[in-house]
Write a structure and sequence with these properties.
Chain lengths: 211, 329
């Protein structure tokens, strides 16, 4: 720990750059994950025929180790941020997609039907009825995806994406524990904070819909 | 004759992939301002019939008319907003308060806040909900109260028709009777057309001006409680509604259907015979008759004028009739 603090103290600019790069990659990846999972999740929940295939595919993707996805992508996209983000999205989207399908399907059909029968449109039903009721489940998925992204981004340093992983990699290779710890502990702290924050949101959402 | 609110004309409905006809050549006229109960077992097609009206389902063949217009030609959202809908477990929005649930449609129609508030007040009084529970979450209400909210929600913008799908199915017997009585009183007051689906014979007979008995997608008989009970059109209806309990049948029959009309001699308005309303059930009348210790009741109309009389012979007639007519299918 003291070595880690000492490193941060002495290389503040480098550390902040790594931190910002890390957060940027996470934010972009998360946005793409949501953009992918939202429509696919809606389709998967609404079209009975798509539910199972989507669940199977996402289940298969989850089995592939993250590092393998990174390495497979290098020959195709080269090094840098882009392959990192593509790989991160592939490995982190499954929990979000699964929770989107499960969450929307968990809303009682009678409730959705009465919304339709009262003359609510599909979009209105989705926004006013289905999303609030599915929210705790959606946040479950978001939580896993977010934590997985933050952790995964440390590996992205291997494909030259930058971020806190760079500190871990160089600390390891140069046998400088302080540098490594500065990267690892910061990534862990961000992950824990994000996890706690989303968990709190989930509790709030749950209180709204259950007695 | 009353105006036709809803009419099924040679309606067929087959669900894709099932091959089973959930509605088979259904022809049915529902008069404006009446309660029609649709009675059948699960899978008989009774709920399908209901959902063909507000186009949750569309007919495979034939058409459903809503005040003379084919529902398939009406804009679906506008149609649904004119038709109230109440289902079992009420289908209330569990994340909203009582008030927000009742005001669902006014909100969609963008009424201003004052108008919504006033309407919610009226509706809560109408369905006899305690004003205390207005801001409470609907999840915290009892099943009976939830159904009151469901009814208030359905009534919010004065629909001309309300569809009810086993709304009291999951409610205890005492509360159910109470809700049925209130629904009847409400309907008499507001003169709404109600289509009410149930699997309870007793409920169907009690509530319906007309009872539609469904089986395997077909209407077996559509008639008054009196005719369903005493002149079943076929063996199926006879077996379906046959009750070993004579008193059970009396609960469903109206005095006006079984009384002896006043002869040319006319009734003596000064007669000391106890009076019974023509709309009372034969069950209630029997109690009154027995309690009075007399041998006849004078049947009166809403204005109190004598319209007929009821004797023990009237009951003997009902019993004999049900045995004789039901024997021949």
């Amino acid at each position: 720990m003291p070595e880690a603090l000492a490193y941060i103290e002495s290389h503040r600019e480098q550390y902040v750059d790594a931190l910002l790069a890390h957060l940027t990659i996470d934010a972009i990846s998360l946005l793409i994950c949501v953009a992918v999972a939202a429509p696919l999740g809606y389709l998967g929940a609404k079209c009975g025929r798509l539910t199972l295939p989507l669940q199977n595919v996402t289940g298969m993707i989850r089995i592939i180790p993250g590092i393998a996805i990174f390495l497979v992508l290098i020959p195709i996209t080269g090094l840098g941020q882009t392959p990192a983000i593509i790989a991160l999205v592939i490995m982190s989207v499954p929990p979000l997609l699964m929770s989107a399908i499960a969450g929307l399907r968990s809303v009682a059909p009678s409730v959705v039907e009465s919304a339709a029968a009262m003359g609510m449109g599909r979009l209105q039903t989705l926004i006013e009825v289905e999303l609030p009721l599915a929210l705790p489940t959606l946040l479950d998925g978001l939580r896993i995806t977010t934590v997985s992204l933050i952790a995964g981004t440390t590996i992205a340093a291997y494909v030259g994406a930058g971020g806190l992983g760079t500190l871990i990699v160089s600390g390891l290779s140069q046998n400088k524990q302080g540098v490594m710890l500065a990267g690892a502990l910061t990534a862990a702290a961000i992950a824990i904070a994000a996890d706690a924050f989303i968990a709190a949101m989930r509790r709030r959402a749950l209180r709204k819909i259950s007695a | 004759m009353a105006k036709t609110a809803i009419e099924f004309i040679h309606v067929h409905k087959t669900f894709p992939g099932s091959g089973v006809e959930a509605a088979k050549d259904v022809n049915l006229r529902i008069e404006e301002g009446s309660i029609v109960t649709v009675l059948g077992t699960s899978g008989s097609g009774k709920t399908t019939l209901l959902k063909l009206i507000n186009r949750i389902y569309d007919c495979t063949q034939g058409r459903v008319e809503y005040f003379g217009k084919d529902v398939a030609t009406l804009p679906v959202v506008a149609l649904r907003r004119q038709i109230g809908y109440v289902i079992q477990q009420s289908g209330l929005f569990p994340h909203w308060t009582v008030e927000r649930n009742i005001a669902t449609l006014p909100h969609i129609l963008k009424w201003d806040k004052g108008r919504i508030d006033k309407r919610v007040d009226e509706l809560m009084a109408l369905v006899r909900l305690d004003p205390e529970c207005r801001m409470r979450s609907v999840r915290k209400l009892s099943g009976g109260q939830q159904q009151r909210v469901g009814l208030a929600r359905a009534l919010a913008v004065n629909p001309s028709v309300i569809l009810m799908d086993e709304p009291f199915g999951a409610i205890d017997a005492i509360t159910r009777e109470e809700l049925q009585d209130e629904l009847l009183a409400l309907q008499t007051r507001l003169k709404i057309t109600i289509v009410f689906v149930t699997h309870s014979i007793r409920e169907a007979l009690k509530l319906g001006h007309k009872i539609v008995v469904m089986d395997k997608g077909e209407i077996r008989q559509a008639d008054t409680a009196y005719n369903i009970l005493l002149k079943p059109a076929n063996e199926f209806v006879r077996r379906f509604v046959s009750s070993d309990d004579f008193y059970e049948a009396l609960r469903a029959l109206r005095v006006s259907e079984c009384m002896d009309d006043l002869g040319r001699a006319g009734g003596d308005p000064r007669s000391s015979a106890p009076k019974i309303d023509r709309d009372a059930t034969m069950g209630d009348a029997l109690q009154t008759l027995i309690r009075s210790g007399q041998s006849r009741l004078m049947v009166i109309d809403a204005e109190g004028g004598p319209v007929g009389e009821l004797t023990f012979d009237s009951y003997r007639g009902v019993a004999a009739r049900s045995e004789k007519d039901c024997g021949t299918a």
